[in-house]
Amino acid sequence: MSGAAVPALTGELALTLAPRGQRTVAVAQRHAGTLQTLRPMYLDDSGQVTYHMVNPGGGCLRGDAYAIDIELEAGARAVVTTQSATKVYRTPGGGAAQHMRIRLGAGAVLEYVPDALILYREATYRQTCAVELDESASLVLAEIVTPGWSPDGARFRYDELRMRTEIHRGGALLAVDNLLIEPGRADPSGIGFLDGRTHVGSLTAVDPRIDEDLLDEVHALTETVGTVRSGLTALAGPGFVLRCLGDDTAELAGLFDAVIALLRSRWTGQAPMNLRKY
After folding, report:
1. Which residue, 131, 129, 128, is CA-closest to 108?
2. Burial (CB count within 10 angstroms: exposed 0-12, middle 13-18, buried 19+), residue 166
3. Among 104, 147, 190, 197, who pairs with 245 as Cys (CB 3.0-4.6 Å)?
4. Could you give the CA distance from residue 70 to residue 263 in angstroms, rounded to a whole number?
5. What do you get for the CA distance between the two ends of the chain, in Å?
6. pTM for the full model?
7. Which helix (DSSP H) or strand (DSSP E) does residue 82 occupy?
């Protein structure tokens, strides 16, 4: 019996975390191909573990496919980030893809804050993220996308970007977020899309402690960054999605850092996140 060939994965990472004593540790870990993690770090005395994902290949090329599976057992607390920006180079006649699955048990806390995703000339990239979390779990997902340098100086030379995030909370669908940018079909810088900006960022937070007062505080933070345009949408989870447009990665990352710092201060008393990359 014949069937379509399943493409081999370029990189695969599976990580299961659980509390052991005062700290969260890995109880199962597997990596293959070009995905791996650096040694775990503990940036404060809370016991929350920080993992940096690494792609030693230096970037994504045509046909590359990555699979990431992150599970936090009940009570586990983690920050997951990348060592550097994810760069997607030319993928003529094909594309690169990443598929992520996240599962959070009761009381688990995950802050997923990767560096920017950069798409260069003639790049096609597709990403999916499926999240399943307990009603008592806490989730923060951040993403910043920017076009890469091109020889002619044009701002949008990549071919296609597709990103889909689907979040289930307590077994029920909470949110579906779809982003599609095809510069070859329509200028994404136009009014009603990116409105003349080059960078797009999205920060999603889901936590039972999110209320109207917190949403007001997040909205107030967005008004302190004058060159970034943002929109805040409340979820029924409870949670929110903060979508931002700008022209500078550092500005968008700074706003997201400020929002995450607010959440940490209000919920756990932790200091602002310092990932010690530079």
Report:
1. 131
2. middle
3. 197
4. 22
5. 53
6. 0.93
7. strand 77-82
